[in-house]
Amino acid sequence: MATATEPTTIADLLDGLGGIPARRVLWSPTPGTATEEDLIRVHERTNRLFELVDGTLVEKAVGFDESRLALLLAGYLLRFLERHDLGAMIGADGFMRLFPGLVRAPDAAFISWKNYPARNRRRGAIPAVVPDLIVEVLSKSNTPKEMKRKLEEYFRAGVRLVWYVDPAKRTVRVHTAVDRSTLLREADTLDGGDVLPGFAISIRDWFAEAERNGPRQPRHGA
Predict the structure, then answer these.
(1) For the purposes of burial, counting CB atoms within 10 Å of the CB of 138, is it exposed (0-12), middle (13-18) or buried (19 or more)?
(2) Does residue 29 have a cis peptide bond before it, meaning omega lies within 30 degrees of 0?
(3) N or C end of the chain, less CB within 10 A?
(4) pLDDT in tens, 124-143
(5) Beta strands of 76-179 (E only): which ranges?
(6) Is 70 exceeded by the pLDDT of residue 165?
């Protein structure tokens, strides 16, 4: 018999996952029964990104433009880390177990060396690891309720900094706690705060590079 917290209808299931579209929920394995092994198997077979939430495989919302924004930001962070050996960057297909039964794959993540998984873990297994910084670039099928749920999970797990990038509004919301955030706009600078001291980029320049659709024009006199 279902308990008060168990979904009894598809609508309950979708609402619990953040009001997401049904097309993002994989129905085999049956929602509520999926495991990490299912997640890995589906990813290897289909090359599609899913996350494991409440025993359900939920497809990660992705898009061409969102991917480019995330990749560029990860590139800026990688270049910074080449000069400041503070940790490592992980990309969008880097599954991480935040809690038993909860596996997320943020668009990008920074993990300090003190939090990095031990070398003796089994290669290919999903590590239990808490990033210091998580980056999520919002897509059209992300819902506010879904992103609120993710935010609560991230900080409950011990993440120190979360950046929510909104391509449509050209903004970055910087979260230092579930209930503490700052909204940055194009004219602002995104910095690493206490997590990545010294890192800073122009949001306008970052978005402009992401939206460039041709070679850079040569400068006059070059």
Answers:
(1) buried
(2) yes
(3) N
(4) 789 999 999 999 999 999 99
(5) 87-90, 96-99, 102-104, 108-112, 133-137, 161-166, 171-177
(6) yes
Residue 193 burial (10 A CB sphere; 0-12, 13-18, 19+): middle
Q: Per-residue confidence at 217, pLDDT binned at 50, 70, 90?
A: confident
Q: What is the pLDDT of residues 45-73, one digit of tens each?
A: 999 999 999 999 999 988 899 999 999 99
Of 159, 102, 112, 113, residue with least CA distance to 136: 159
Identify the H or E element spanning 66: helix 64-83
- CATH 3.90.1570.10, the chain: domain bounds: 64-211
Which DSSP state fits 160? -
> Which residue type occupies 70?
A
3-state DSSP call for residue 52?
A: strand
Mode of pairing for the β-strands spanning 196-202 and 50-53: unpaired
The answer to whether 132 touches 111, Cβ cutoff 8 Å, is yes
